[in-house]
What we know:
Elements: E1 2-4, H1 18-27, E2 32-35, H2 44-54, E3 57-67, E4 71-77, H3 84-110, H4 117-124, H5 131-140, H6 147-155, H7 158-164, H8 171-180, E5 184-187, H9 197-209, E6 214-219, H10 224-236, E7 240-244, E8 260-261, H11 265-269
Parallel strand pairs: 1-2, 2-3, 5-6, 6-7
Antiparallel strand pairs: 1-8, 3-4, 4-5
Amino acid sequence: MIIDLHTHSSASDGQYTPAELIRLAHEKNIVIFSLTDHDTVNGLKEAEKEAAKYGIRFIPGIEISAQEDEEIHILGYGINYCDKTILEACNNFISDRSNRGERICDFLRNKGIDITMDDIRTISGESNIGRPHFAKYLLNNGYVNNRKEAFDKYLDTTDFYEATRRKTPTIEQAIDLIHDVGGKAVLAHPALIHKTDSQLEEMIKTLKKQGLDGIECIYSQHSEDQTIYYLGLAERYNLVISCGSDFHGEQVKSHVELGMMLDNNKVIKRFIANFL
Length: 276
């Protein structure tokens, strides 16, 4: 079956509106779908309504940015997105993201780049401001040759994070928030975490005790060996399995396509959708 439980819309930093994203999912024959915008639930009502038109099983989701020794993303699935607890938390996240945008502008200006928040708002529109919007500005104005260079040179460096760090929940707080609104908490794209396999396993052992429900084992940027390793961790620590592309749209992440094939019966038995 074709599914996708990790996608982003224009409610955060994606290219397409929630409804457009659902229509794309229908064109791709996706049967189970989740919208997991960064730190916001603003697109979920629109997406859920559109999914019902096409008979797509829709799982309300979110991707929460948490902070330990580095930024870690926790996916929340099956959340009650109308609960005031998540709405208040998201309002705080959005406010802090806006403040961080000013810090990013300051950082880039110190690097000799002529940029203002008005420039970024022109790109982001009504979306929550995120690093892809800054990357697009850098590319559009000739400071970099491609999106990857924007991140490698400016937006994914140690001095960038030191200068622009925002107030974020701990991983345990993110897990608790997801649980408080009826959801399951899943560690996103473990291969993107800057840890060795042994360090990652130790972290997962700790997070399991803190209530972690699953791991995004199958991800668009995971190698086959990485996928096998993460599936083993999920089984070892009795965690459910998630699967997602991290689709943002061709203009944002041109190398990521919408939809993932899930046809391993052993994996399907531990698939998170079975537990929601």
